[in-house]
Amino acid sequence: MMNSTEIARPPLETGPAETTSAGPPPATSASSPEENPPESPAPVEGEKASDPSANPAPSEQGFELVSADTKNGKPQAVVVFATGVFKQKTEEFSKVPAIREAQSRLSALIAEFKESPAPSYLRRHSLLLLCVVLPTLLSTIYYGLIASDIFVSEAKFVVRSPNKKSAASGLGAMLEGAGFSGFSRAQDDIHTVREYVSSRDALVYLNDKLKLSEAWSSRKIDLFIRFNPLGWDGSNEALFEYYGKRVNVAVDSATGITTLTARVFSADQAFEINQILLGQAEHIVNVLNDRGRNDLIRFAENEVQTAEEKAKSAASALSNFRNTQAVVDPERQTQLHYEHISRLQEELVKTRSQLVQLKVFAPKSPHPPALELRQKTLENEIQKEMQQITGGENSLASKAAEYERRALDREFAEKQLASALASLEVARNEAQRQQLYLETISKPNLPDEATLPKRFRGILTTLVLGLVAWGILSMLLAGVREHQY
Hints:
The protein has 14 helices and 6 strands. The chain is α+β, with helices and mostly antiparallel strands. The protein folds into 4 domains: 1-23 and 53-82, no CATH class; 117-147 and 454-485, no CATH class; 149-300 and 444-453, 2-Layer Sandwich (Bacterial polysaccharide co-polymerase-like); 306-431. Strand 4 (247-251) and strand 5 (258-264) form a beta hairpin. The model is unreliable at 1-82 and 164-185 (pLDDT under 50).
């Protein structure tokens, strides 16, 4: 026997019929190879029979001599080296009783598992396990052990307005059309309140009061619904997007009732968020009231100021016309001239009648020349009066048109001023009343237990969806198999 550390090194070239070895021949089993020679396959025609000496049996040290492929008709014996020491130590350990017993038990367990129906069952129902069992199991673990409690606080309110309409005339109609007279539609103000509650301003105000970013990113909250769970994005935009998931405002268009809902991870925080937002909503309504009142009064006062300026300008223009044209009221002055002409005409008729009578009954009377002079004087006076009324550029008729225009301007300015003053009085009366009201229907509640998540419903939903997916995939796979075979 050779030592275990020695290595068999055959010569580089050997004859076709012998193989050299440094040690004695390997040990044989109970039946020698000569007694039970192995059956070798019959050589194929055109091929040489393999030489048994080219593939000797392994030695005690774990060495194998494997013949290489023949090259140029000269077979080469190649020694494939293996670790003999490892095989020898393995054999020594396997002789230990405890190790031998453990190996036998492990072999028995492996054989029993291979013979059991479990592996084949898993292979047959793998789709059911993946689509139904595994998701339902994960959902049960999540909702039962991981999911954080969510507390819900609700408040309901409505924005109302008296919706009274005053008699609109002139400026009042303009104000009513512009939304200043009376009250604006409460529906529009409801949407204003909703937009504010959902805005960044409301989030900033809440964050300053309650430190929401720190509270919502606490490690006590479920990783899957926590704000900034991985610590990668704690920006204001991300917080605002998360805020939209925690706070919701819903408006019922039929009744006008607005529902404010806060879904957070603490009962006290849900109550505080709802209460603060409700107070801010009422503040916004009051701001709208103040702004509406101020705009209404300011607009009315501006209209009054404009009307006053127009009235003053019209009165001044009329006064200047009277002074420059030396006329107070052409219509009245013309009336006076007509009355004076009428009286002169009456005197003229009497004078002519007397003159005729004297010429007829007293032709030698000295009075006719005087009467003729009086007649001529009256005719001249009548002619002058007529010229003042209708003759030339300085007549009352030519001045009456300009006077009437200026008088109409003054009258219109005075009426506009009166209308503006009436509208200002109405605006002041409206400003003294509350135009919009935020009435709370139900105050924010302090939840005493978590109502979310719906754990059983979540697990049942996962199970139902898994069954649906499993059924669909099973039918698809069955159709594919049928199509193949």
